[in-house]
């Protein structure tokens, strides 16, 4: 069964809010979180209509909070709130038995002592899981044509999801031969490998809930040097969790507008900071071992659309010396490559940010992306069926204000690790998002927006965006012939 968590927020006792449509796949348990709903005026009524004819749910309004059995942490973090707003309300949505999509409208009403009511309307689509979602794509393993015994044809396929072997033939009397031990592989293995590698990276981490020092990976950031913090949860595995290829200080543009290296002379960032960064601005990267800076003067910059900006540097950062004149060690990142749609919560990710919880973006935690390369099919104005692939993705970090998000929805093997940044805030945009894979970090995206459970980013694993990035590298200058490095994951 799939799971989905919906976090509702409001700013007054009389808000009327229509939420974006929630897309769910097949049988799904929805968890409703009301912890961020307005409660300065005491709410004395709660009603939930799930939209599927299951009846109106009217939870008891509990006023008394027993601190011997109930945590006070949410009140310390965000102020007093009703106890019935600090529990999850769960409901199971079933797909249609007669249609591919079931459309409903969920409603939540909150009444207040002053007589006002806040109303939430949430459109819900539940898509029935089909054969494609069950097996995803197929690789052709073997073909047997015109067998001399019975003149039949056999086609043997390997599913990309779960590595099932499927055989198709044209004779119901045919006997299958037992497949021997095969060295099978599919792109489904990439998420399993990423999960296993992430589990290994996190296995020695002490649970750091509320400890800013555990999340902070760099400090004392200056033009000459910075310090990689030894208390950071990833420090013992920093040869893999290597952040030296992202800038954390700048001259001429905002320090928080991180640039992340995608070649020895090219980096990528967001473009919503205006005409920043630009030519002659300076970005500072920090040596992986010593923390001494490697300065990089920007030669040219270009917006490539989709709120992305590519820059080129006046020198090769991979061979540049540090502020002390010594040889530097700076990471260059490859990008994942996704050629198919990837369902929600398939990969763990390591994300930078921290302004929401720690008032600084020099922190890192874990999260998980929702659908990657989300595919839509529809008809255009001429009635022609077309397929579009979304270049945007959302990344879940966990319940706002509570750094306790565990990656149970990715894999039970990751359910014990508590390393959430909780949410994002102003100043976190530009921070990189990485997939651990192949004992390195692949640059999946860059923070652009904030939402109730994390934030949004462009999916740098999208092949169309990668073409745009490559074109941008040529626009800002690429006489050295550098190519974007990618690793196919689906």
Describe the structure.
The chain has helices at 73-78, 131-135, 188-202, 212-215, 355-358, 463-475; strands spanning 2-9, 16-18, 22-25, 28-36, 43-49, 56-57, 88-93, 101-112, 117-127, 138-144, 154-159, 165-169, 218-219, 227-228, 249-251, 260-263, 266-270, 282-286, 293-305, 308-313, 335-337, 349-353, 363-369, 375-379, 385-389, 392-396, 432-437, 440-451, 454-458, 486-488. Strands 2, 3, 5, 6, 8 and 9 form a 6-stranded mixed beta sheet that branches. The protein has a 6-stranded antiparallel beta sheet with strand order 15-18-19-20-17-16. The relative contact order is 0.12. It has 6 helices and 30 strands. It has 490 residues and is mainly beta.
Write the layout of secondary structure elements.
Blueprint: E1 2-9, E2 16-18, E3 22-25, E4 28-36, E5 43-49, E6 56-57, H1 73-78, E7 88-93, E8 101-112, E9 117-127, H2 131-135, E10 138-144, E11 154-159, E12 165-169, H3 188-202, H4 212-215, E13 218-219, E14 227-228, E15 249-251, E16 260-263, E17 266-270, E18 282-286, E19 293-305, E20 308-313, E21 335-337, E22 349-353, H5 355-358, E23 363-369, E24 375-379, E25 385-389, E26 392-396, E27 432-437, E28 440-451, E29 454-458, H6 463-475, E30 486-488
Parallel strand pairs: 1-4, 2-9, 3-9, 21-30
Antiparallel strand pairs: 4-7, 5-6, 5-8, 8-9, 10-11, 11-12, 13-14, 15-18, 16-17, 17-20, 18-19, 19-20, 22-23, 22-27, 23-26, 24-25, 26-29, 27-28, 28-29
